[in-house]
Amino acid sequence: MKRKWGILLGLLCIQICWVRGVKVEQSPSVLSLQEGANSTLWCNFSDIVSSVQWFQQNPEGSLISLVFIASGTKQNEKLSSTVNSKERYSTLHITASQLEDAATYLCAAE
Ligand SMILES: *[C@@H]1O[C@H](CO)[C@@H](O)[C@H](O)[C@H]1NC(C)=O
Ligand SMILES: *[C@@H]1O[C@H](CO)[C@@H](O)[C@H](O)[C@H]1NC(C)=O
């Protein structure tokens, strides 16, 4: 029997925040998923960025660096991250979300 977990992925910068003068828009602001679903988080930037770092903040509050990416795509078993500096966005794709993925995700750019 498949348990239905509601997985909440919140994003810290819910609307718009500024990182070193670059305006960053994260979307979606809050996402509710079923166990096993894939999900993609976006960060859109107002300016060209040279690198992006994605973090996960777990419920205890600690910040974990997930990936640092300067261009192209980086992938591990579960996460795939892309940066498109020309179109000024980065995505974090989470494959087969599980309860332990419930967290706040944020991106930082420079
Ligand atoms: C972010 O950029 C992507 C690709 O250009 C676009 O499809 C998406 O709508 C943008 N999201 C926001 C919130 O502006
Ligand atoms: C989730 O993503 C993985 C890898 O990108 C893909 O193989 C799989 O078909 C996707 N599953 C769904 C439900 O979209």
Automatic annotation (TrEMBL):
Keyword check for Disulfide bond: yes
Subunit structure as annotated in this protein's UniProt entry: Alpha-beta TR is a heterodimer composed of an alpha and beta chain; disulfide-linked. The alpha-beta TR is associated with the transmembrane signaling CD3 coreceptor proteins to form the TR-CD3 (TcR or TCR). The assembly of alpha-beta TR heterodimers with CD3 occurs in the endoplasmic reticulum where a single alpha-beta TR heterodimer associates with one CD3D-CD3E heterodimer, one CD3G-CD3E heterodimer and one CD247 homodimer forming a stable octameric structure. CD3D-CD3E and CD3G-CD3E heterodimers preferentially associate with TR alpha and TR beta chains, respectively.
Localization of this protein: Cell membrane
SUPFAM superfamilies: Immunoglobulin (SSF48726)
GO cellular component terms attached to this protein's record: T cell receptor complex
Membrane among keywords: yes
Major location (coarse): membrane
Chain ranges of the Immunoglobulin V-set domain: 26-108
UniProt signal peptide: 1-21
InterPro entries: Ig-like_dom_sf (IPR036179), Ig-like_fold (IPR013783), Ig_V-set (IPR013106), TCR_alpha_variable (IPR051896)
Gene3D superfamilies: Immunoglobulins (2.60.40.10)
Keywords recorded for this protein, A-Z: Adaptive immunity, Cell membrane, Disulfide bond, Glycoprotein, Immunity, Membrane, Signal, T cell receptor
Top-level taxon of origin: Eukaryota
Entry protein name: TRAV43-1*01
